[in-house]
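Reminder: ligand-aware prediction takes two inputs, not one.
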Amino acid sequence: MLRISILSLLLLLASVFADPSVSTKRTLDFKEVCTNNKNWTTLYLRAEGSNDTLHYLWDFGGKPSILMALTSPAATLNITCEDFLLRKNNSITFSQDPIYTIGIIINRIIEFNDVNDTAVINIADVTNINVLRPEFFRWSRKSLSVIGDSVGLDMEGNSYNDTAKNITRYGSIKLSLRGFCFLDHTETTPHMLHTENSTQVDFIFDNIQTNETFSNSRFAIELLMVGDGNPDRILVIDPKKSLDDEHTPGIFEVIEVRVPAFDRTDKMESTGGYLQWRPVSYVTASRDATLSTETIQYPPSKVSNRVNAVKNTMLYCYYGEDAKNLLVQSIIVSLGSKGDGFYKKTHYTTWTFIIGYGIPPDEQFSNLVIMIITIGLGLPLIIIFATGIYVCFRSMSKRHTDTYLNR
Ligand SMILES: *[C@@H]1O[C@H](CO)[C@@H](O)[C@H](O)[C@H]1NC(C)=O
Ligand SMILES: *[C@@H]1O[C@H](CO)[C@@H](O)[C@H](O)[C@H]1NC(C)=O
Ligand SMILES: *[C@@H]1O[C@H](CO)[C@@H](O)[C@H](O)[C@H]1NC(C)=O
Ligand SMILES: *[C@@H]1O[C@H](CO)[C@@H](O)[C@H](O)[C@H]1NC(C)=O
Ligand SMILES: *[C@@H]1O[C@H](CO)[C@@H](O)[C@H](O)[C@H]1NC(C)=O
Ligand SMILES: *[C@@H]1O[C@H](CO)[C@@H](O)[C@H](O)[C@H]1NC(C)=O
Ligand SMILES: *[C@@H]1O[C@H](CO)[C@@H](O)[C@H](O)[C@H]1NC(C)=O
Ligand SMILES: *[C@@H]1O[C@H](CO)[C@@H](O)[C@H](O)[C@H]1NC(C)=O
Ligand SMILES: *[C@@H]1O[C@H](CO)[C@@H](O)[C@H](O)[C@H]1NC(C)=O
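Here is what comes back for the chain with 2-acetamido-2-deoxy-beta-D-glucopyranose:
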């Protein structure tokens, strides 16, 4: 009796998990805005849902940045190009005030000399640090494509030229953005899970010239998060273990960053922005799991002069001087782990993350894994059960025979 109930419970569980999760889908539309003769790309995406609309702006004029705004369904974007190209405040507006906004700026690329092979960056050790400013790369568009229901933009930053310091470098940063409007895994490794409210950002540091005085160069990325959230609280970093590495071989962890809400109730926490990534960096173009290294994240910190921090970026065009009342915090992620041979080993390293709104998705066991678990647990149970019946039947029929013989 007990055996039967365990088995049916398992089967029930399997059928529940196997049900394709009912996911909401948005319709995605995009267009380039404020085209200009400087190869500077600004893309506007509009993802309409039944009750609201998500607007995205991806901008490569200066520091690459992303703005995400949730509005009522009918709200439209109003961008005054003349002012926008001059980076003036309030050159981006919405016809109705957004319900929620969050932005991100690729603020700095940091090269550090990892003298003792710890893979941990020490920002205070200025002699072993070089800061590269993303706006000093020459950003050009490699492709803009619609892949299924998603939109992809591939940009490449080349010919680094810091004219003030007279520093130039060869090599490129490839930055690929993908906008999604449905729940699925991305097709490029590490196959992040994305929702209908998210964008993937993928970095490749391809053959970037390192400082000749640094023997053990590694790279780190500093992001600025700007937007609605409690400016007095610090971004919440939450590394989560997962049981399943089916989509990202060998990686059993997801790092999650949540924008702190004004109150502490869960409801508010679930209606905000988040970042998510797997702590893995691939060191070859094939993104082979055996040739990968790790990423390390550091505690976020508040930015003291918030308006200055966003000036000359697309986010200033929207937030303007209001940035002083917003959450503006920086977060650093370094690429590499102890003993991996440093950047010089392959001159290639990647980092991929998701920026989204709402509840960060959790990896669920896939049907295949559930089937394997079900068979793995269920088969022995069936065998035990069958054996039980057989033994019962035998002893019963034996008793029968005995009775017969006794007669
Ligand atoms: C724009 O991009 C094209 C192709 O990448 C390049 O040939 C051209 O020089 C660029 N123009 C400017 C002004 O950077
Ligand atoms: C839209 O709002 C209605 C009523 O509030 C709700 O039942 C429905 O689930 C919402 N749809 C989405 C996609 O959030
Ligand atoms: C767009 O913004 C400009 C400048 O703020 C304003 O003059 C114009 O009326 C706005 N247009 C719409 C359609 O709201
Ligand atoms: C832009 O900022 C200046 C202060 O720096 C302010 O005086 C001006 O009103 C702002 N412009 C708009 C359109 O809000
Ligand atoms: C490397 O290790 C040596 C010896 O432990 C130490 O003196 C030195 O400060 C370390 N260098 C860095 C950059 O951490
Ligand atoms: C860097 O910029 C300066 C000033 O615009 C220019 O003179 C120089 O040729 C540039 N260097 C390279 C390598 O493009
Ligand atoms: C800039 O650096 C190059 C070599 O890296 C040097 O030849 C050139 O004279 C420098 N220019 C200035 C203005 O310092
Ligand atoms: C290399 O690092 C040194 C020390 O930090 C710095 O002075 C120099 O400008 C750097 N060179 C380049 C090409 O970045
Ligand atoms: C996507 O955003 C909508 C808009 O408010 C929200 O209702 C929904 O829960 C979000 N989806 C996820 C998976 O977080």
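Residues 230 and 262 are 5 Å apart (CA to CA). Helices lie at 2-18, 81-85, 266-269, 306-310, 314-319, 367-406. We will return to this case in the review session.
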